[in-house]
Amino acid sequence: MKTMKKGFVVSLSMVLILSMMAGCSTNNDKPSASPTGEAATKAPEKTAAPSTEKVKITYSMWGSEAEGSATQAAADKFNASQNRIEVKVQAIPWENYMTKLNTQATAGQLPDTGILKEDGVIQWSSDGMLNDVSAMYSGSDSKPLDSLAYKYQGKTVAYAAANEILLLYYNKDMFDKAKVPYPPSALDKAWTWDEFVATAKKLTVDKNGKHADEAGFNPQSIVQYGASVENLAWQLEAWVLSNGGGFYSGDGTSVRIGEDASIEAIQKVADLYLKDHVAPLSVGQTDDGIQRTIIAGTVAMATNGQWNIGTSLNAAKDAGLKYGVAVLPYFKEKVTLNTGGANVVFSQTKHPKEAMEWLKWYTAEENNWGLISSGIWMPTLKKWYTDETLTHRWVDNKNFPPYNEYKSAVVDYAQSSAARPAAWFYTNHTTDFNTLLGSTLGDVWTGKATAKDAITKNLEALKAANKGKK
């Protein structure tokens, strides 16, 4: 799905195709019957025909006319499943999407519900444009994980349509060749940062076969790197939090990037290249880290989001790559970030209850099974993480690493205390802040400036960006 660069790095066409596959796949590719014998996919129960017309709901999405038609086909299934609500899909080209919504908002003609860029949720909430959706799962047997709720002034204003967390990927052949133990998949056995760096040195090799922890190693002739930590601005927050710092205060109203703990964590990421000589140079501008590292066969370990399993690693696995997943290493606290695109109910709607009913159906795991089973999305509802039967139904498939490894490093990790929401779940103006931080850190990655000097020099501008000021 074409959302922010950081997540769901897959075209909307692919998303829709995979979603539609859920209705025509084999029994090995979709949920089986539940333990009670009921079908896993449940449409809303039909009710007696009402005496009035159906409530008409418009759902907005970004995409082409053809993509809109595919989404409308899904909506038609919902429409046919009950006789109270009729959903019409409005497809808007990606490049015009937010402009169109802003125009509609000004004219009082917003759709009832739709998808919204992650970094726009809190902004729209602060402008009074979004409904409180905390009642969406009232009476349900499960609700989304707490870390997937977008919150503004204590109210839930959106739920993520899918879940994603940051992981450590690794090349098993490289580890086997070096006779080095694999990274731990269990949170209670997570490596410290020092253990991570020490292992990376054993896996970094120069053209003469010397490792980074051996005498005679030449950092100017490295042919295999031990590690790569994705340094896109939003992902860097995981390390800052792990070190006891932060980008923002807990309520998102003030900036903490200038604290010593925050600066120290960023410098240590830079030092993987500058001093430890275990990582390739990355300037934090493109979200293709797994392709450039693990898939390219140049790096033994790399951090990035779970979505990479579906968007790129499945194909690489079919081509012979043997990879594994593990939890992230840590400084002081064990931290991973989660994210997910937001579906919202606009405040201009006259039918918030019906809009929420549609969203709840549309985002149900059973109705997005192609995306989940391929590894692009993770479920949102807590029961898929806690109910062993559902977890097996999700994880037992050829697209994932072995069950125990994936369950520990992904399923258990995502519901642990280590999983924290990315800043856009509670903070405004994250695009401006992350863009400025990314440019601020450019010279840090190349060693032209220290993290302390670069951040101190731009700290007031970063604080202003957090307030929406240029």
From TrEMBL:
Endpoints of the signal sequence: 1-22
UniProt lineage: Bacteria, Bacillati, Bacillota, Bacilli, Bacillales
Region of interest called Disordered, as start-end residue ranges on this chain: 27-51
Superkingdom of the organism of origin: Bacteria
Cross-referenced InterPro entries: Bact_solute-bd_prot1, SBP
UniProt organism field: Paenibacillus allorhizoplanae
Protein name (record): Sugar ABC transporter substrate-binding protein
Gene3D superfamilies to which the protein is assigned, alphabetical: Periplasmic binding protein-like II
Any matching Pfam family: SBP_bac_8
PROSITE patterns, per the entry: PROKAR_LIPOPROTEIN
Annotated Low complexity bias: 38-50
Keyword annotations of the record: Cell membrane, Lipoprotein, Membrane, Palmitate, Signal
